[in-house]
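User: Before I run my own analysis I want an independent prediction to cross-check against. Here's the chain; please return only the structure tokens and, at the end, one sentence I can use as a sanity check.
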Amino acid sequence: MRHAARLTIALAATLAATASWADDYPSKMLRMVVPYPPGGITDKIAREVSEELSKRLKQTVVVENRAGAAGNIGFDYAARQPADGYTLVLAPASNLTVQPALFKRLSYNLEKDFAPVSLLVNTPQVLLVHPSLPVNSVKELVEYSKKNPGKTNFGVTLGAYSHLAGEMLATQTGADFKAVPYQGVAPALNDLLGGTTQFGFNEVTTAIPQIAGNKIKPLAVAYRSRVPWLPNVPTMAEAGFPNFEVTSWYAVVTRQGTPRPIIDRLSKEFHDIVQSPDFKKRYDDMGAFVVGSTPEELDQHIKSETARWIPVVKQAGIEPN
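Assistant: Structure tokens:
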């Protein structure tokens, strides 16, 4: 009886301390870890939401780029920080889904070390070809690769959704595609523009300027419907490949064990930031949909995307590093 009473008192004291801690949050600078170099879309989103978050929380939010090992260095660092809501990570989908299938030994565990906060932005993938390639549809691309073995290459960042999309198309059609690895989206896109590689999947956000300049030819968008930025480009389903959808996304996570009131506070702030008229217009103009999910919605999204893409990694034989 006395033992139960002591446990009850201890639990009440712990809950009171947690509530007080959450009420005082934030009382110091926050860090937004970006596991990639400056200049990319991940970095752009992080800096823009951090600026707004700083205004709302009335605390400095510093963006820290901790790049390397396909994002693993940044995640390793964040996994060793206190579970207090002062260290956040903004990362693309692949880091939150297929990473364990791509790397034999990770120093962190996504499920045990990180808690979902909010899904911020979605952007569909679009299938692009170099203008010199004599194809005008997805089916023609597949047939071209079969008639010209070893001559249809696509640039990839290992494990990124653009990589998985190409592998999935090859698996479904028997196409003779070869993935050429690059250290990031920018060099892969540059080589596609230069004709070193012949095709590739790319996020709409980075593809639009090149399409507008007629430097590259879009064949189809891997989305459930046509997208407003490319209204004349068919979907993969319209091109003859039903249920072929690949949408990149970017989300914020923090350390597992962070008090729930703090996670809820952050999630609401991120929702209000990305759903604000100015932010929505900015991202609509560049080819992205804003979301601003709850932690539960992000958790379910991560689980469903993981279940979908890890089999693609294994079926394509993408070797872990």
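Sanity check: DSSP finds 13 helices and ten strands in the chain.
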